[in-house]
Amino acid sequence: MKGTKMIIAFGMAIVLLLSFTACSKGMKAYDKDALISLLQDKLSISEGDIHVTETDGSTGTPAATVITAKYNNARINVSICKDAKDAAAQFKKSYDEFQNNFNKSSWFKGKYISLNEPDSGYIVINGDSPETSVFGDRFRTGSVYGGLYFTGSQIIIIIPEGMESSDDVGKIIDALGYPNV
């Protein structure tokens, strides 16, 4: 009987470990063409509203292919870094800032999830008075619904761009297939 309980407990531990691993490992990294196709096909963003630029790293940001697009009242900004280490370092900086400053005053009202692993992570906030600038200083106080995602060599940030943006932010996150609150 004792051996059976141990086998069941071990089996449950493995299933739990695999489910946690699946949550973060399931985030797909997109290349430029796949991401542009997704924005056009799933969100009906026209080709003219998707902007692609290349950065060389000379301005203090990592060398990357940068893709930006507005979707109704939300914006998606994607950096596909030339070096995955740059993406990891950039996300770690934002994640550390989030951990150090988020909700120190316990004023936050809403939902959030976060995860930081060596090759993937995310921060998703939907609420009031977040006290974090990971989505930009203009969202440090007040309401924000946004997501910051890191996987492989890419960083994706999804932020509101106007009033009544919750549905639009949620639709972008869902189209990507990423974790959401």
Total domain units: 1
What structural class should be given to the helix and strand makeup?
Answer: alpha+beta
SSE run: HHEEEHEEEEH
Provide the residue-averaged pLDDT. Answer: 84
Total strands: the figure is 7
Percent strand equals 25-35%
Q: Please state the second-level CATH architecture.
A: 3-Layer(aba) Sandwich
Tell me the helix content.
Answer: 25-40%
- Please give the alpha-carbon distance between the first and last residues: 41 Å
Low-confidence stretches: 3-24
Shape: globular
Strand sequence of the main sheet, in spatial order?
1-2-3-7-6-5-4
CA-atom Rg in angstroms: 18 Å
CATH class: Alpha Beta
The CATH topology, please? Protein Transport Mog1p, Chain A
Number of helices: 4
Let me know the largest β-sheet: 7 strands, antiparallel
Task: Explain the overall architecture.
The chain is of the alpha+beta class. The chain has a single domain, classed as Protein Transport Mog1p, Chain A. About 35% of the residues lie in helices and about 30% in strands. The protein has helices at about 1-25, 30-45, 85-100, 165-175; strands spanning about 50-55, 65-70, 75-80, 110-115, 120-130, 145-150, 155-160. A 7-stranded antiparallel β-sheet has the order 1-2-3-7-6-5-4, with helices on both faces. A hairpin with an 8-residue loop joins strand 1 and strand 2. Helix 2 (about 30-45) crosses helix 4 (about 165-175). The longest helix has 24 residues, at about 1-25. Residues about 5-25 have low confidence and may be disordered.
Strand and helix layout:
Elements: H1 2-25, H2 32-43, E1 50-55, E2 64-71, E3 74-81, H3 84-101, E4 109-117, E5 120-128, E6 143-151, E7 154-160, H4 166-176
Antiparallel strand pairs: 1-2, 2-3, 3-7, 4-5, 5-6, 6-7
Helix pairs in contact: 2-4
